[in-house]
Protein backbone atom coordinates (compact mmCIF):
# COMPACT_ATOMS: atom_id res chain seq x y z
CA UNK A 1 0.00 0.00 0.00
CA UNK A 2 1.11 3.57 -0.69
CA UNK A 3 -0.57 6.73 0.59
CA UNK A 4 -0.66 10.02 -1.35
CA UNK A 5 0.98 13.26 -0.18
CA UNK A 6 -1.44 16.11 0.67
CA UNK A 7 -1.10 19.85 1.50
CA UNK A 8 1.11 21.29 4.21
CA UNK A 9 -1.59 23.55 5.73
CA UNK A 10 -1.36 21.94 9.19
CA UNK A 11 2.39 22.56 9.33
CA UNK A 12 1.89 26.22 8.37
CA UNK A 13 -0.81 26.70 11.03
CA UNK A 14 1.33 25.08 13.72
CA UNK A 15 4.40 27.17 12.87
CA UNK A 16 2.28 30.34 12.81
CA UNK A 17 1.20 29.77 16.41
CA UNK A 18 4.69 28.75 17.57
CA UNK A 19 6.33 31.75 15.88
CA UNK A 20 3.89 34.40 17.17
CA UNK A 21 5.27 36.63 19.97
CA UNK A 22 3.25 35.23 22.86
CA UNK A 23 2.40 36.65 26.27
CA UNK A 24 -0.15 36.62 29.08
CA UNK A 25 -1.10 32.91 29.01
CA UNK A 26 -1.52 30.17 31.63
CA UNK A 27 0.76 29.33 34.55
CA UNK A 28 3.28 26.51 34.47
CA UNK A 29 2.66 22.98 35.79
CA UNK A 30 1.90 19.34 34.93
CA UNK A 31 -1.17 18.23 33.00
CA UNK A 32 -2.68 15.09 31.44
CA UNK A 33 -5.52 14.26 29.10
CA UNK A 34 -7.00 12.17 26.34
CA UNK A 35 -8.73 12.62 22.98
CA UNK A 36 -10.89 10.52 20.67
CA UNK A 37 -11.65 11.10 17.02
CA UNK A 38 -11.21 9.74 13.52
CA UNK A 39 -8.15 9.21 11.36
CA UNK A 40 -8.05 9.14 7.57
CA UNK A 41 -5.51 8.35 4.86
CA UNK A 42 -5.55 7.95 1.07
CA UNK A 43 -4.88 4.56 -0.53
CA UNK A 44 -3.05 4.62 -3.86
CA UNK A 45 -5.49 2.64 -6.04
CA UNK A 46 -3.46 3.38 -9.19
CA UNK A 47 -0.40 1.63 -7.71
CA UNK A 48 -2.47 -1.39 -6.70
CA UNK A 49 -4.00 -1.63 -10.19
CA UNK A 50 -0.56 -1.34 -11.77
CA UNK A 51 0.82 -4.11 -9.57
CA UNK A 52 -2.01 -6.49 -10.45
CA UNK A 53 -1.59 -5.70 -14.14
CA UNK A 54 2.02 -6.85 -13.80
CA UNK A 55 0.62 -10.26 -12.78
CA UNK A 56 -1.61 -10.35 -15.88
CA UNK A 57 -4.75 -9.47 -13.94
CA UNK A 58 -7.32 -6.78 -14.75
CA UNK A 59 -8.74 -4.90 -11.75
CA UNK A 60 -12.55 -4.68 -11.76
CA UNK A 61 -13.03 -2.76 -8.48
CA UNK A 62 -11.22 -1.74 -5.28
CA UNK A 63 -12.96 -1.41 -1.93
CA UNK A 64 -10.94 1.08 0.16
CA UNK A 65 -11.06 1.39 3.96
CA UNK A 66 -9.53 4.83 4.41
CA UNK A 67 -11.09 5.96 7.72
CA UNK A 68 -11.10 4.52 11.22
CA UNK A 69 -11.67 5.52 14.84
CA UNK A 70 -8.58 6.84 16.62
CA UNK A 71 -7.51 7.99 20.08
CA UNK A 72 -4.56 9.32 22.04
CA UNK A 73 -3.56 9.75 25.68
CA UNK A 74 -0.96 12.28 26.71
CA UNK A 75 0.76 14.14 29.51
CA UNK A 76 2.93 17.24 29.54
CA UNK A 77 4.58 20.04 31.43
CA UNK A 78 3.91 23.75 30.85
CA UNK A 79 7.48 25.04 30.47
CA UNK A 80 6.41 28.71 30.34
CA UNK A 81 3.11 30.58 30.08
CA UNK A 82 2.98 29.81 26.35
CA UNK A 83 4.99 26.64 25.65
CA UNK A 84 4.62 23.05 26.83
CA UNK A 85 6.46 19.78 26.20
CA UNK A 86 3.96 16.96 25.64
CA UNK A 87 4.37 13.22 25.16
CA UNK A 88 1.85 10.46 24.61
CA UNK A 89 0.63 7.25 23.00
CA UNK A 90 -1.71 7.16 19.99
CA UNK A 91 -3.63 4.63 17.91
CA UNK A 92 -4.68 5.74 14.43
CA UNK A 93 -6.72 2.59 13.73
CA UNK A 94 -6.80 0.21 10.73
CA UNK A 95 -6.79 0.93 7.01
CA UNK A 96 -6.90 -1.38 4.02
CA UNK A 97 -8.34 -2.41 0.67
CA UNK A 98 -9.80 -5.35 -1.26
CA UNK A 99 -9.01 -5.41 -4.98
CA UNK A 100 -11.12 -7.67 -7.23
CA UNK A 101 -9.68 -9.02 -10.50
CA UNK A 102 -10.37 -10.85 -13.74
CA UNK A 103 -9.58 -13.75 -13.92
CA UNK A 104 -11.49 -14.03 -10.66
CA UNK A 105 -9.39 -13.25 -7.62
CA UNK A 106 -9.02 -10.87 -4.69
CA UNK A 107 -5.99 -9.13 -3.16
CA UNK A 108 -6.49 -7.86 0.41
CA UNK A 109 -4.26 -5.45 2.29
CA UNK A 110 -4.61 -4.34 5.91
CA UNK A 111 -2.48 -1.93 8.00
CA UNK A 112 -2.54 -0.90 11.69
CA UNK A 113 -0.80 2.26 12.98
CA UNK A 114 0.25 2.84 16.61
CA UNK A 115 3.04 4.74 18.28
CA UNK A 116 4.45 7.37 20.62
CA UNK A 117 4.99 11.11 20.17
CA UNK A 118 6.93 13.99 21.75
CA UNK A 119 5.71 17.48 20.79
CA UNK A 120 6.41 21.13 21.50
CA UNK A 121 2.98 22.79 21.99
CA UNK A 122 2.45 26.54 21.67
CA UNK A 123 -0.58 28.43 23.03
CA UNK A 124 -1.88 31.80 21.80
CA UNK A 125 -4.72 33.41 23.82
CA UNK A 126 -7.54 34.69 21.58
CA UNK A 127 -10.72 35.91 23.29
CA UNK A 128 -11.76 35.22 26.88
CA UNK A 129 -11.06 31.56 27.69
CA UNK A 130 -10.43 30.59 24.02
CA UNK A 131 -6.87 29.92 22.79
CA UNK A 132 -5.22 28.71 19.59
CA UNK A 133 -2.87 25.70 19.67
CA UNK A 134 0.02 24.72 17.41
CA UNK A 135 2.32 21.74 17.71
CA UNK A 136 5.45 20.34 16.06
CA UNK A 137 7.00 17.05 17.14
CA UNK A 138 8.41 13.64 16.34
CA UNK A 139 6.77 10.23 16.43
CA UNK A 140 7.87 6.63 16.65
CA UNK A 141 5.22 4.74 14.66
CA UNK A 142 4.87 1.01 14.15
CA UNK A 143 3.02 0.07 10.96
CA UNK A 144 1.83 -3.55 10.88
CA UNK A 145 0.75 -4.82 7.43
CA UNK A 146 -1.07 -8.04 6.51
CA UNK A 147 -1.83 -9.29 2.99
CA UNK A 148 -3.91 -12.15 1.63
CA UNK A 149 -5.06 -13.28 -1.80
CA UNK A 150 -7.68 -15.58 -3.27
CA UNK A 151 -8.29 -17.05 -6.69
CA UNK A 152 -6.03 -15.86 -9.49
CA UNK A 153 -4.48 -13.04 -7.38
CA UNK A 154 -1.31 -13.52 -5.35
CA UNK A 155 0.48 -11.46 -2.66
CA UNK A 156 3.18 -9.38 -4.43
CA UNK A 157 5.52 -9.33 -1.40
CA UNK A 158 7.96 -11.78 0.10
CA UNK A 159 5.82 -12.22 3.23
CA UNK A 160 2.11 -12.02 3.97
CA UNK A 161 2.80 -9.91 7.05
CA UNK A 162 5.33 -7.18 7.67
CA UNK A 163 5.87 -4.45 10.22
CA UNK A 164 8.20 -1.50 10.49
CA UNK A 165 8.90 1.17 13.12
CA UNK A 166 9.99 4.57 11.82
CA UNK A 167 10.70 8.04 13.25
CA UNK A 168 8.73 10.79 11.54
CA UNK A 169 7.54 14.39 11.67
CA UNK A 170 4.21 15.31 13.25
CA UNK A 171 2.38 18.69 13.11
CA UNK A 172 -0.97 19.93 14.30
CA UNK A 173 -3.19 22.91 15.05
CA UNK A 174 -6.40 23.48 16.95
CA UNK A 175 -8.38 25.37 19.57
CA UNK A 176 -8.65 25.06 23.36
CA UNK A 177 -11.37 26.35 25.69
CA UNK A 178 -10.82 26.55 29.46
CA UNK A 179 -13.94 25.71 31.49
CA UNK A 180 -11.99 26.31 34.72
CA UNK A 181 -8.30 26.93 35.52
CA UNK A 182 -7.96 23.13 35.91
CA UNK A 183 -10.17 21.71 33.11
CA UNK A 184 -10.16 22.56 29.40
CA UNK A 185 -11.30 21.05 26.10
CA UNK A 186 -9.28 20.71 22.88
CA UNK A 187 -10.35 20.38 19.25
CA UNK A 188 -7.33 19.44 17.09
CA UNK A 189 -6.31 18.41 13.59
CA UNK A 190 -2.97 16.55 13.34
CA UNK A 191 -0.87 15.03 10.59
CA UNK A 192 1.21 11.90 11.21
CA UNK A 193 3.92 10.97 8.72
CA UNK A 194 4.79 7.23 8.57
CA UNK A 195 6.43 4.42 6.61
CA UNK A 196 4.35 1.27 6.15
CA UNK A 197 5.54 -2.31 6.52
CA UNK A 198 6.69 -2.61 2.89
CA UNK A 199 8.58 0.70 2.75
CA UNK A 200 6.00 3.12 1.30
CA UNK A 201 5.74 6.64 2.74
CA UNK A 202 2.35 8.11 3.65
CA UNK A 203 0.34 10.47 5.85
CA UNK A 204 -2.52 9.91 8.28
CA UNK A 205 -4.69 12.85 9.36
CA UNK A 206 -6.47 12.73 12.72
CA UNK A 207 -9.26 15.05 13.93
CA UNK A 208 -10.05 14.67 17.62
CA UNK A 209 -11.73 16.25 20.62
CA UNK A 210 -10.48 15.75 24.16
CA UNK A 211 -10.15 16.98 27.73
CA UNK A 212 -7.08 18.27 29.58
CA UNK A 213 -6.67 18.39 33.37
CA UNK A 214 -4.03 20.64 34.96
CA UNK A 215 -2.70 19.43 38.29
CA UNK A 216 -2.50 21.96 41.10
CA UNK A 217 -4.49 24.64 39.28
CA UNK A 218 -6.27 26.88 41.76
CA UNK A 219 -9.61 28.67 41.15
CA UNK A 220 -9.64 32.43 40.95
CA UNK A 221 -10.09 33.88 44.46
CA UNK A 222 -13.50 35.46 44.89
CA UNK A 223 -13.65 39.21 45.44
CA UNK A 224 -14.68 40.00 49.01
CA UNK A 225 -15.94 43.51 49.59
CA UNK A 226 -15.50 45.24 52.92
CA UNK A 227 -18.55 45.31 55.14
CA UNK A 228 -20.42 48.62 54.78
CA UNK A 229 -20.23 51.01 57.70
CA UNK A 230 -23.34 50.83 59.90
CA UNK A 231 -25.86 53.65 59.62
CA UNK A 232 -26.49 55.19 63.02
CA UNK A 233 -29.75 57.09 63.53
CA UNK A 234 -29.55 60.54 65.05
CA UNK A 235 -30.22 60.62 68.79
CA UNK A 236 -33.35 62.49 69.96
CA UNK A 237 -32.88 66.08 71.10
CA UNK A 238 -31.94 66.35 74.82
CA UNK A 239 -34.20 68.23 77.24
CA UNK A 240 -33.51 71.97 77.64
CA UNK A 241 -31.08 71.71 80.51
CA UNK A 242 -27.57 72.92 80.66
CA UNK A 243 -24.95 70.35 79.87
CA UNK A 244 -21.27 70.79 79.38
CA UNK A 245 -20.34 70.98 75.71
CA UNK A 246 -18.93 67.69 74.45
CA UNK A 247 -15.29 67.44 73.71
CA UNK A 248 -14.44 67.95 70.09
CA UNK A 249 -13.94 64.64 68.23
CA UNK A 250 -10.40 63.88 67.19
CA UNK A 251 -9.68 65.24 63.73
CA UNK A 252 -9.83 62.72 60.95
CA UNK A 253 -6.41 61.77 59.72
CA UNK A 254 -5.63 62.29 56.09
CA UNK A 255 -5.81 59.05 54.09
CA UNK A 256 -2.52 57.18 54.15
CA UNK A 257 -1.52 55.64 50.83
CA UNK A 258 1.38 53.23 50.33
CA UNK A 259 2.35 51.99 46.85
CA UNK A 260 4.17 48.68 46.50
CA UNK A 261 5.96 47.78 43.27
CA UNK A 262 4.33 44.72 41.68
CA UNK A 263 7.79 43.60 40.50
CA UNK A 264 8.95 43.60 44.14
CA UNK A 265 5.91 41.66 45.39
CA UNK A 266 5.42 39.14 42.57
CA UNK A 267 7.26 37.26 39.86
CA UNK A 268 6.37 38.20 36.26
CA UNK A 269 2.78 37.23 35.35
CA UNK A 270 2.23 35.61 38.80
CA UNK A 271 0.05 36.42 41.82
CA UNK A 272 1.99 34.56 44.53
CA UNK A 273 3.77 36.95 46.92
CA UNK A 274 7.57 36.54 46.99
CA UNK A 275 9.51 36.35 50.31
CA UNK A 276 10.85 39.89 49.83
CA UNK A 277 7.31 41.13 49.25
CA UNK A 278 6.07 39.39 52.40
CA UNK A 279 8.72 41.24 54.42
CA UNK A 280 7.49 44.61 53.07
CA UNK A 281 3.87 43.76 53.86
CA UNK A 282 4.85 42.65 57.40
CA UNK A 283 6.35 46.12 58.01
CA UNK A 284 3.19 47.78 56.73
CA UNK A 285 0.92 45.60 58.90
CA UNK A 286 3.01 46.52 61.96
CA UNK A 287 2.39 50.23 61.21
CA UNK A 288 -1.36 49.63 60.98
CA UNK A 289 -1.43 48.25 64.52
CA UNK A 290 -0.71 51.80 65.77
CA UNK A 291 -3.60 53.37 63.82
CA UNK A 292 -7.32 53.52 64.57
CA UNK A 293 -8.58 53.15 61.03
CA UNK A 294 -11.99 52.81 59.41
CA UNK A 295 -11.04 50.88 56.29
CA UNK A 296 -8.24 49.66 54.03
CA UNK A 297 -8.56 49.59 50.23
CA UNK A 298 -6.12 47.43 48.22
CA UNK A 299 -5.96 48.24 44.49
CA UNK A 300 -3.94 46.20 41.97
CA UNK A 301 -2.58 47.84 38.82
CA UNK A 302 -0.88 46.47 35.69
CA UNK A 303 0.79 48.33 32.86
CA UNK A 304 -1.09 48.96 29.61
CA UNK A 305 0.54 46.12 27.64
CA UNK A 306 -1.45 43.01 26.81
CA UNK A 307 -5.17 42.11 26.57
CA UNK A 308 -7.50 44.13 28.83
CA UNK A 309 -9.43 41.11 30.21
CA UNK A 310 -6.28 39.21 31.16
CA UNK A 311 -4.61 42.22 32.80
CA UNK A 312 -7.79 42.98 34.76
CA UNK A 313 -7.91 39.43 36.14
CA UNK A 314 -4.19 39.51 36.98
CA UNK A 315 -4.54 42.83 38.85
CA UNK A 316 -7.55 41.44 40.77
CA UNK A 317 -5.63 38.28 41.77
CA UNK A 318 -2.67 40.32 43.00
CA UNK A 319 -4.84 42.72 45.01
CA UNK A 320 -6.67 39.75 46.55
CA UNK A 321 -3.34 38.08 47.44
CA UNK A 322 -2.19 41.24 49.31
CA UNK A 323 -5.56 41.49 51.09
CA UNK A 324 -5.40 37.88 52.31
CA UNK A 325 -1.81 38.30 53.47
CA UNK A 326 -2.62 41.47 55.49
CA UNK A 327 -5.55 39.63 57.13
CA UNK A 328 -3.07 36.96 58.24
CA UNK A 329 -0.96 39.80 59.70
CA UNK A 330 -3.83 41.02 61.89
CA UNK A 331 -5.88 43.37 59.70
CA UNK A 332 -9.61 42.84 60.34
CA UNK A 333 -11.17 41.06 57.35
CA UNK A 334 -14.29 43.24 57.57
CA UNK A 335 -12.27 46.43 57.11
CA UNK A 336 -10.19 45.55 54.05
CA UNK A 337 -11.33 45.31 50.42
CA UNK A 338 -9.51 44.48 47.20
CA UNK A 339 -10.04 45.36 43.55
CA UNK A 340 -8.15 45.40 40.23
CA UNK A 341 -8.19 48.20 37.65
CA UNK A 342 -6.05 46.88 34.74
CA UNK A 343 -3.76 49.67 33.44
CA UNK A 344 -6.44 52.37 33.68
CA UNK A 345 -4.56 54.58 36.19
CA UNK A 346 -0.92 54.85 35.02
CA UNK A 347 1.54 56.96 36.99
CA UNK A 348 3.91 57.28 34.02
CA UNK A 349 1.41 59.38 32.04
CA UNK A 350 2.69 59.94 28.50
CA UNK A 351 6.37 59.38 29.30
CA UNK A 352 6.58 55.87 27.79
CA UNK A 353 6.02 55.72 24.02
CA UNK A 354 4.95 52.76 21.88
CA UNK A 355 2.84 49.62 22.22
CA UNK A 356 5.32 46.85 21.31
CA UNK A 357 6.52 45.07 24.51
CA UNK A 358 10.24 45.82 24.08
CA UNK A 359 12.57 45.55 27.11
CA UNK A 360 12.95 49.35 27.13
CA UNK A 361 9.17 49.95 27.17
CA UNK A 362 8.61 47.27 29.85
CA UNK A 363 11.25 48.95 32.03
CA UNK A 364 9.74 52.41 31.44
CA UNK A 365 6.27 51.18 32.50
CA UNK A 366 7.58 49.56 35.71
CA UNK A 367 6.03 52.24 38.02
CA UNK A 368 2.57 51.44 36.59
CA UNK A 369 2.83 47.80 37.78
CA UNK A 370 1.99 48.30 41.45
CA UNK A 371 -0.36 47.58 44.34
CA UNK A 372 -1.74 50.67 46.17
CA UNK A 373 -2.94 50.36 49.77
CA UNK A 374 -5.02 53.29 51.13
CA UNK A 375 -5.91 53.53 54.82
CA UNK A 376 -8.64 55.88 56.08
CA UNK A 377 -9.39 56.62 59.76
CA UNK A 378 -8.09 58.51 62.80
CA UNK A 379 -4.94 58.07 64.82
Walk me through the structure.
The protein is α+β, with helices and mostly antiparallel strands. It has two domains: 206 residues, Porin, CATH 2.40.160; 126 residues, 60s Ribosomal Protein L30, Chain: A (2-Layer Sandwich), CATH 3.30.1330.60. Helix content is 17%, strand content 46%. It contains six helices and 13 strands. The strands form two sheets. Strands 1-3-4-5-6-7-8-9 form an eight-stranded antiparallel β-barrel. Strands 10-13-11-12 form a four-stranded mixed sheet. The N terminus is likely disordered.
CATH class of the largest domain: Mainly Beta
| Ends distance | 87 Å
How are the strands of the largest sheet arranged? 1-3-4-5-6-7-8-9
Shape verdict = rod-shaped
Order of helices and strands, N to C?
HEHEEEEEEEEEHHEHEHE
| DSSP summary, beta strand count | 13
Q: Radius of gyration, Cα only, in angstroms?
A: 33 Å
Tell me what the CATH architecture of the largest domain is: Beta Barrel
